[in-house]
Amino acid sequence: MKFIKKACLTLLSVASVSGAYAGGMLTNTNQNIAFLRNPAREGAIGIDGVYSNPAGVAFLNDGMHLSLNWQAAFQTRTVFTTSPFLDHTLSGENKTKRYKGNAQVPFIPSVQAAYNTGKWSFQFNFAISGGGGTCEFDKGLGSFESTLGGMATSVAGLINQFNQIPGMALPTVNSYDMEGYMQGKQYYFGFTLGTAYKVTDNFSVYGGIRALYGTAKYQARISDIIVNGNQHLNQYVDGLTAKLGQLGQLGVTLPPAVTEQLAAVNAYKNGVDLESDQTGFGISPIIGVDWKIGTLNLAGKYEFRTRMSMKNKSNLAQAGMMSAVEQFVDGTSVREDSPALLALGAQWSVLPNVRINAGYHHFYDKQSKKAGNKQELLSGGTNEYLGGVEWNTTEKVTVSAGFQVTRYGLTDAYMSDISFVTNSTSFGFGCKYKVNENVSLQAAYFKTFYDKYKTQDGMNEFTRSNDVIGVGCDIEF
Question: Is 301 helix (H, G, I), strand (E, B) or coil?
Fold first, then answer.
């Protein structure tokens, strides 16, 4: 039955429910507290540049530089779904319901390290480059509920047709209820090794390799399905099957399509309880440049696409009649590339103690392959525009603030309540305190304001919220 097939596809297609906290669709750019207090770090020179401006790290003093960071993120994801299949009385009238998912990630670590000697800088970065938490919809989603409502409506219509036959009195469906649940967990651990070289006193280059290890776990279920107020679906289906058996005695042959539908309903009369675990690995190169012109510093970085195939371990042994979910069968692999990224930045030292920053990101999302070639549904890649300012108020204290504007290439066809993003504007602020010549402490707060995305047919509206706090310690020796 098409509604049952859709339900299983919906339940298994739970990828990316716990997406990135700052940056593109699958890329976390908040890999240092310096980013939280001023997101425009692409043209800045500091130990956080091991991620944001690796070529510029070559201009730090000789010796060892280390940055240890801890962040905590708190997200919500809210979907308003309108459908005639959300009315449990099967009246056919449109009903709008809200579905809210919560994600709390109390520990997001990252480490940047560099050893500078002469013209060379040897660097290492560890961070959660994508995902980074668990998102839970404890009431399920509109796609779950409308799928079941559609199934109930279809069954009711089918039975009404049979009841036109003299002597037939099949029990129909006039209402339904259910319990829905979904949880998704994603972590993409990034490990980067690279080297920067000062070609001149004002120009440096960088080359590196990033290894990305991805792990994800998805759980989803539809359970406790009740029809007609108090009858479990399995009891109803068994009774219906017995009644339909009487048609043979009346000389009525069930059409093949009806037989297939009944078999599908019977297969899932106890609900659906699905789990999927995925793991994958990929490697990609990174290159960068930094150019100092008086009080102006310019920098650029390009991260190549990371080709990743996430191998599936699930309780789905075979797709069977559900050919659309073959990609989730146990032992199969799912494409989940991390997109290429072009990052450009500038920093202008207006005064010896005041710096203005600007930056630009472009994520090549449309060239980043996804399961089912979902990337083709996008109108283009992601663009981000960043700005900020830093002020050394004293020899020991630096305060900073900045913003990030994110614009995705979204389309109605791409958006779903399972996996979605919306355009956003983020603001961050914080401070850095120099304890002594070798140790500095950082603290920051980062807030994202998401737009509301409403599909053209008015049937779905999406939005999110995001708050991040963080502290860090930078050490030189």
Answer: strand
Q: In the 8-state DSSP scheme, what is residue 255?
A: P
The pLDDT of residue 15 is: 42
Q: What is the pLDDT of residues 444-462, one digit of tens each?
A: 999 999 999 999 999 999 9
| Amino acid letter, residue 361 | H
The contacts of residue 341 (CB under 8 Å, 6+ apart) are: 24, 27, 301, 302, 303, 361, 362, 363, 364
- Asked whether the predicted pLDDT for residue 6 surpasses 70, the reply is no
Block residue for tokens 């049979």: 162
Spatial contact of 397 and 418, defined as CB atoms under 8 Å apart: no
Token pair recorded at residue 320: 């069977």
Residue tagged 């480059």 (tokens): 129
Distances (CA, A) of 345 to 25, 166, 288, 290: 21, 78, 11, 9
* pTM of structure: 0.89
How far is 37 from 30, CA to CA, in rounded Å? Answer: 10
Burial of 385 (0-12, 13-18, 19+ CB in 10 A): middle
The three-class DSSP label of residue 145 is: helix
